[in-house]
Design goal:
Chain lengths: 76, 227
């Protein structure tokens, strides 16, 4: 199993909807946190392989109100 | 009162000036050396350092400040400064860099007492300038609701009518009235509209133009403007 973190920059203040949609984006989403600073959310994923990470990150990126995503794969 | 302001850029320095003019004590915290010197030349006490670090804020006197304005363009710095200040039970004001974040920080950030988005006030000023002298936005009550001060002109279709006779659109209401050169008060139904009188109107953005045409009577674009 691989743990990955998706840093999400939004373009909308609709926190309730975005949190809900990201949490429901895929079974591999373990948690969504609203964070302070130049990004708005951190999404934690638990997936089988790196290709799954890409697919989930892409589905988040495509949501209405999301400007940008950056994905980091944990090495430990 | 004593305030600490993080950021001596266009927002922080201006805020510091206004506070100083009103007799308050201000200490600025700034990372950029040129800006530090600029603010010192303007007579301010400036700490050269990173406003997101506790020892820098302590040096600026956060422990006995009445309020902290985290006004840099870096949201991470602003939020860290507010967290440290809140630990010292200081009143905190955070500048956000994008309008959608205003509501998010109001709802989620316990460390932050007030959120400011300076561009919103800049936009109101720019809008007032564009609309000309007979209409002035006073406040955005909500995203679609605002209070606007309108002045009756020669061209006003409602000139000579009473307030009771003014039929504003459904989503607009007159909340205050003042005769020319007199102070504003609550509107009375038999007040008569004459040139120079002012009305404060609470209106939904969708009907603002309709209300403006009734009370002010001019077309929106300046004459000679492109259609």
């Amino acid at each position: 199993m691989i743990t990955a973190y998706v840093m999400v920059k939004a373009s909308s203040g609709d926190v309730g909807r975005l949190k809900r949609e990201m949490a429901a984006a895929d079974d591999t989403v373990e948690g969504v946190s609203v964070v302070a600073g130049d990004i708005d959310y951190i999404v934690k994923l638990r997936v089988d392989g790196p290709s799954d990470v890409k697919a989930v990150a892409a589905s988040i990126h495509e949501m209405v109100g999301i400007e940008d995503t950056r994905t980091y794969i944990a090495m430990d | 009162m004593r305030f600490v302001i993080i950021g001596a850029g266009r927002v922080g320095l201006r805020t510091a000036r206004v506070l100083r003019e009103e007799g308050h004590q201000v200490t600025l915290v700034e990372l950029d050396r040129d800006r530090v010197e600029h603010a010192r030349d303007a007579g301010f006490e400036v700490i050269h350092g990173d406003g997101s670090r506790e020892e820098v804020l302590r040096e600026a006197g956060i422990e006995d400040a009445d309020g902290l304005g985290a006004l840099t363009s870096d949201l991470n710095v602003n939020f860290a400064a507010c967290s440290i200040a809140k630990h010292n039970r200081t009143w905190t004001v955070l500048r956000v860099d994008e309008d959608y974040r205003e509501g998010v920080y109001q709802a989620y950030a316990d460390e932050v007492d007030e959120v400011v988005y300076p561009e919103r006030l800049g936009a109101i000023g720019a809008k007032n300038a564009l609309l000309g002298g007979s209409i002035r936005a006073i406040a955005d009550v909500a995203q679609h609701l605002q209070v606007v001060l309108m002045t009756v002109t020669e061209a006003s279709p409602m000139r000579g009518y009473t307030i009771e006779e003014v039929q504003l659109p459904a989503n607009a209401t007159i909340i205050a009235f003042g005769k020319a050169e007199e102070s504003m008060g609550l509107p009375l139904s038999d007040d008569t509209l004459a040139v120079g009188d002012r009305l404060a109107v609470l209106a939904d953005f969708d009907v603002l133009e309709e209300a403006r045409q009734l009370i002010v009577g001019e077309t929106l674009a300046p004459e000679g403007g492109t259609a």
